Amino acid sequence: MDYKLLLKDIRNKKFERMYFLHGEEAYFIDAICDAIIEHALEDHEKDFNQTILYGKDAEVLSLISELKAYPMMSERRVVVLKEAQYFKHIDELEAYAEHPSNTTIFVICHKYKTFDARKKVLKSFAKNGLVYKSDKVREYNLADWISNYVKSIGFGINSKASMLLAEFLGTDLGRIVKELEKLSILLPPGTTIDETHIELNIGISKDYNVFEFVNAISSRNTEKAFKIIQYFEYNPKAADFTLIISNLFKFFSQIMRIHFLPNKSREAIAQAVGVPPFVAGELLQAKNQYDPRKIAAVIELLHRFDLKSKGVGNASASQAELLKELTYQILH
């Protein structure tokens, strides 16, 4: 089931008897679990009818006892097993999952990895409850996800600001949401968030960041690239060398693909490479700055400098020195 539809059902108090939440993305699992805890019971019912256990400490017999207990002065009970990835007895819950209590909502939160779909216990949960697989948001979809989330909380965000957040914070949705919630408190409702808001309130420079550095490389703007490197040198937390290498590799891989696409319209590039149309336009322009032979040489350079940053063939050069040398070799 779609994440938004599932949350809508929970808020409308349409509950399953069991929820098996599993997968690599913890944010969705936590959000669904929190929604069930918030909406399944009234506050005065929770003391006697809500039990939260943790995988490392839970005992299977005690858990089953909680699941089969009757609610006190309430329509239902809620039993949550958090950190279920550490619970060694999930398979022993199959018998319960085959005949779950009609008065208990049982939630399993199995985070950071996918549970084995071949196991009978998961099939029993799917038959008599709901199984939700929480996948990571793909990197190329992250800016769109940020834009949609911002819209859902009553704000707007421009394309550059969403890309800036995606580049700086990566795919950690929990961290992204926390930063956006901070902005939602500080800014008037309905504000369109831009890169200046992000710089002032989150601390990501709108001019000196990995996103702008890659843009400088793409346009072969040597002066801008070295200004940003100088900023990174004085502000080491602004950018990690590995993150810079990763973003440069992504950029050069994308424009290599564009060179060999039969249809080089913005729309075709956006679909093929998995980027918003405005980014596709920028990549199309960047393609003209680097032919395939140069791109291949740059990718080999990135691999070599990545190893140097890890100490292979490099005894003393700092990351700033490595970045200066790498940039010089790319642009000349």
Outline of this structure?
The protein is of the alpha/beta class. It has 17 helices and 7 strands.
CATH class of the largest domain: Alpha Beta
Number of helices: 17
Overall 3D shape = elongated
Q: What fraction of the residues are assigned to beta strands by DSSP?
A: 5-15%
Structural class from helices and strands?
alpha/beta
Distance between the termini: 52 Å
Strand and helix layout:
Layout: H1 3-11, E1 18-23, H2 26-40, H3 46-49, E2 50-54, H4 60-68, E3 77-82, H5 94-98, E4 104-111, H6 120-128, E5 130-134, H7 142-152, E6 156-157, H8 159-169, H9 173-186, E7 192-193, H10 195-201, H11 210-218, H12 222-234, H13 241-259, H14 266-273, H15 277-287, H16 292-309, H17 319-331
Parallel strand pairs: 1-4, 1-5, 2-3, 3-4, 6-7
Helix pairs in contact: 1-2, 7-8, 11-12, 11-13, 12-17, 13-15, 13-16, 14-15, 16-17
3D structure, described in words:
By secondary structure, the protein is an alpha/beta fold. It has three domains: 3-134, 3-Layer(aba) Sandwich (Rossmann fold); 139-201, Orthogonal Bundle (Helicase, Ruva Protein, domain 3), CATH 1.10.8; 210-331, Up-down Bundle (Zinc Finger, Delta Prime, domain 3), CATH 1.20.272. It has 17 helices and seven strands. It has helices at residues 3-11, 26-40, 46-49, 60-68, 94-98, 120-128, 142-152, 159-169, 173-186, 195-201, 210-218, 222-234, 241-259, 266-273, 277-287, 292-309, 319-331; strands spanning 18-23, 50-54, 77-82, 104-111, 130-134, 156-157, 192-193. Strands 2-3-4-1-5 form a five-stranded parallel beta sheet, with helices on both faces. Helix 5 (94-98) links the parallel strand 3 (77-82) and strand 4 (104-111). Helix 1 runs parallel beside helix 2. It starts with a helix and ends with a helix. The mean pLDDT is 91.
